[in-house]
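Late entry, written up from scratch paper. The run itself happened at the end of the previous shift, but nothing got recorded in the book at the time, so transcribing now.
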Amino acid sequence: MATLVRSAQFPTLFDQFFGGPAIVRYQKPVAQVPAVNVKEDETGYHLQLAAPGLKKESFVLSLEQNKLTISVKPEEQTDSQTENYTRKEFGVAAFERSFRLPKNVNTEAISATYTDGILSMTLPKVPVQEPVVKQIAIG
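Output as recorded:
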């Protein structure tokens, strides 16, 4: 049977010099902020956030002073929900992403869906008003 050895949290100068798979093997996974794609077309902006393994109820979407905030605060697991893992490398971590919206976004018509691990948001643009040309009669 192999002996489990606790590794240091901080790599040593020796580890940095020789680098490689040994360092990766013993480092803890780092929580990451989900990746986002933003696309613009003539009708608006389309935002996609990759967040697999969540429920749509986990998301909190808020808009304050033209700043869109997407956050997730996962449920706390009680002892009855946890299992005796030998190794656990993935899970749901809390995160928050904020975006300053352009002035041409219609904030009253923003919509969102969550399907197959992707949060999709549509941020429609305010219709552009054509300037009205008024003829003035000379009297």
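The first helix runs from residue 13 to 18.
(Scratch paper discarded after transcription.)
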